[in-house]
Amino acid sequence: MRKYTSPGGVILLCLLFLAGCRTMVPGERFDTDAISKAQRIVVSDTAGNEKAVLTEEEDINAFVDAINAGGWRFQELPEDLTEAGSFTLWQTETVTALVGEGEVREIELCAFRVYEDGDYLTIETMLGGVTFSISPETAAYLRSLLA
Fold it and tell me: Measuring CA to CA, which residue among 138, 20, 144, 146 is closest to residue 71?
């Protein structure tokens, strides 16, 4: 029996994951506050080689401001695109008193994949991936971080 996953369901789950416990209302803009919770952003090329690591609050805020998530639109990913690299967002796991071993560790929030020859971005989480059409300026900024 083949499992069918609704694209709308995957998108909603991805946005809920990125937004934490806050509920997204249909028609609401994508909230960059969820992205700004990242405490470390690892920039990697297509081979997985680390190009840079953003850890300073100013650098992460500049990243969030530059990506202009308010202009993103859900889009099907064309098959002929070449990946340029990725941005993996990490956050320190919340430690709850009396639960767990008390060991602080980082968890991966999501990964952004950008493409060389198109203005597209794919967000990948443990629930799957969602592709967006992004502005040419945002795409150029992301590709400049990979250079």
Answer: 138
Q: Where are the domains of the chain?
A: 7-146
Fold of 7-146: Immunoglobulin-like (2.60.40)
Half-sphere exposure at residue 22, Cβ-oriented, CA atoms within 13 angstroms: 12
**Confidence band of 38 (pLDDT split at 50, 70, 90):** confident
Tokens of 93: 């796991």
Radius of gyration of the chain (CA): 16
Whether the model pTM is above 0.90: no
Contact call for residues 67 and 141 (beta carbons, < 8 A): yes
CA angle 69/123/92 to nearest 5° reads 90
| Mean pLDDT, rounded, of the chain | 77
Residues paired with residue 90 on neighbouring β-strands, in sequence order:
40, 108
Question: pLDDT tens for residues 85-122?
Answer: 999 998 887 666 666 566 667 888 889 999 998 899 99
